[in-house]
Design a protein that fits this description.
Layout: E1 27-30, E2 40-42, E3 46-49, E4 63-65, E5 69-75, E6 86-88, E7 94-98, E8 103-106, E9 113-118, E10 121-126, E11 134-137
Parallel strand pairs: 5-11
Antiparallel strand pairs: 1-3, 2-4, 5-8, 6-7, 6-9, 7-8, 9-10
InterPro entries: Fimb_usher, FimD_plug_dom, PapC-like_C, PapC-like_C_sf
Protein name: Putative fimbrial biogenesis outer membrane usher protein
GO biological process, one term: pilus assembly
Length: about 140
């Protein structure tokens, strides 16, 4: 779906036509990722273009397919994990973030362990035991 362009849809090949862009002006082209598969990550959802009158402008929105994982975790003292804490793999690559309600959003479901870091500390979660709904970050 393309917000601001009622009735315009993206086809199965990922193409859409926006007929009402204003020439010689900055136009924001936006896509709404709602309805896309959960494992698809968008590099961006808004692009700015300045078309000439009568021109066709190609706008590419990069995507990548990820093996995502969501799980809820708490600290060993039963406190929730801090909102917006960063999640890293053991090799130091950032793989996610902590959301509301101590919900962990991880973009690499193949990782065996996640290290959660925030300004006041850090802990790690074993991701091999994904069957439990409430994991403990130690």
């Amino acid at each position: 779906m393309l917000p601001g362009s009622p009735g315009t849809r993206v086809d199965s090949n990922g193409y859409a036509i926006l007929p009402y862009l204003r020439p010689y002006r900055i136009n924001a082209v936006e896509i709404d990722p709602k309805g896309s598969h959960d494992d698809v990550a968008f590099d961006r959802t808004v692009a700015q273009v300045v078309p000439w009158e009568g021109s066709v402008v190609k706008v590419a929105f990069g995507t990548k397919v990820q093996n995502n994982l969501t799980l809820q975790a708490r600290q060993a003292n039963h406190e929730p994990l801090p909102f917006a804490a960063s999640i890293f793999s053991p090799d130091g690559k950032e793989i996610g973030v902590v959301g509301q309600g101590s919900m962990m959003f991880i973009s690499d479901a193949n990782a065996k362990r996640a290290i959660v870091k925030w300004s006041g500390g850090q802990c790690s979660v074993d991701l091999g035991q994904q069957t439990t709904k409430d994991s403990v970050c130690r």
